[in-house]
Amino acid sequence: MTSLASSAQLDxxxxxxxxxxxxxxxxxxxxxxxxxxxxxxxxxxxxxxWAPTQANFQPLRVLYVQSPEARERLVAxxxxxxxxxxxxxxxxxxxxxxxxxxxxIPTVVPHLAHxxxxxxxxxxxxxxxxxxxxxxxxxxxxxxxRAAGFAAGPMGGFDAAGVDREFFADSEWGSFLVVNxxxxxxxxxxxxxxxxxEEHVLAFA
Length: 205
Description:
CATH architecture of the domain at 43-182: 3-Layer(aba) Sandwich
Domain Nitroreductase: 30-183
CATH topology of the domain at 43-182: NADH Oxidase
Number of strands: 4
Distance between the termini: 37 Å
Structural class: alpha+beta
Radius of gyration: 19 Å
Strand order of the largest sheet: 1-2-4-3
EC number: 1.1.1.298
CATH class of the domain at 43-182: Alpha Beta
GO molecular function: 3-hydroxypropionate dehydrogenase (NADP+) activity
Strand content: 5-15%
Low-confidence stretches: none
Keywords: Oxidoreductase
Pfam families: Nitroreductase
Shape: globular
Number of helices: 8
């Protein structure tokens, strides 16, 4: 087998993989009563961690909310329409950006170690960089959930400030997305809504 490092041409994934990751994948709103183990959740991250980020900064942080007590605390911060499904989901991830990601720059991008000090002095730029890149990683996280054989239910309907007070008060983490994870129930999916045609989206210069 030719390694990616030595090959100029990459093989496209097959149709079943495209369907699982993209064309047949839906946001799940209900899940089967089948547990998701901590090891399976770690497997999701083992895929998601390879997402590209600016200068390899990697600001995304993931809190898996699994204990009944922690789940109740999270559900209290969800919008009304998201509470029941978040309480019932086999696994739930809170995705957050780390405003102190720059502390890890000497480890993840050693040749730019000097940026740690410059970002320390620029909170506004640091938070903007963290948010933008964490959103990029979040897209990969959802694809990783699907690649690991699960359905994902990403949600933005929650009180982010409340979640941060409950779970991240002693850190610079800032929540921005909650993702329910599990095997889909029979009634998990709503009918797919339309996608824009390419003439409204694509341009070539």
